[in-house]
Fold:
Amino acid sequence: MKSISLFPAVVRVGLLALVAAGCESSSHHHHEHHGHGAHSANAMSAASTPTVSVNTDGVFTPAPPPAPQQDTGAGVGYDKTPVIPGQKWRVHDKDRPVPPIVTPGARFSHGAPPPSDATVLFGGRDLTQWELSDGKPAPWTVMNGFFQVAPKAGAIQTRQEFGDCQLHIEFATPSLVEGSSQGRGNSGVFFHADFEVQVLDSYNNRTYADGQVGALYGQWPPLANPVKGPGEWNSYDIVFEAPRFDTAGKLSRPGYLTVILNGVLMHNRKELNGPTHHQVVDPYKPYNSRGKISLQDHGNTTRFRNIWVRAIGEYN
Structure:
């Protein structure tokens, strides 16, 4: 039977509603960035103050921001890792082309309020919905309506388990730029401990294509790079479909991820080859298709806010 993508329904019903509701109240931070080939500071400045055009019916609409300069620097990554199943590229292949850079609109679903059937995982006050892997309270730092990674404290995970779901989460990498490649603003959104959507400061920061912001880590680079500058808030809207296994433990349906970053499509129901791990190719392991959502501690003080999740139901 032909599979049917959830993406069009999500766009029509969920994400368009987020656009109408989304509003970013916090002011943007502006920084100088040096080095060739990534987002240009001028393009980002233009994006924050878009020109205004008028349609013939008298409705004013913002003009799109100018396209930024594309990164053409030397590759970063590995050349002796396994070949990714079904692809010609190795895991974290240093020669794999990086996605095109796109200047996003000023906001997309930033500040989007949760729907009535959503579970609020962070509403700006506390981390009571989160814990460490051993069940102890989450020790990350909460302040001013967001929380940030407490380096070396360990990853945090939801207390509740979820199956197929729609997740909204906003993040900002550190304003102070330190490190390079995977050492800048690194974290990750994990589903069921094994399937990661990468969080990284990919603004003027070259790394391997399947490890930059929006990547399905170690498997698929995103279709574009629309990340905002260090210290600025980004919005992720993600649809996760868990893999399924039959009674004998054999894979009956792979996992899929649909990812939108700042209003730009990263992946449209992209099939997962298995767990998304560093430098290796691992097969699926049978489980009950439910699990926790976790955020990675990679040693960088990346921030998160406005997190909510909805279970995906079945069609009648």
About this structure: Helices lie at 7-21, 41-48. The chain has one domain: 7-32+76-311. The radius of gyration is 19 Å. The CA atoms of residues 236 and 277 lie 21 Å apart.
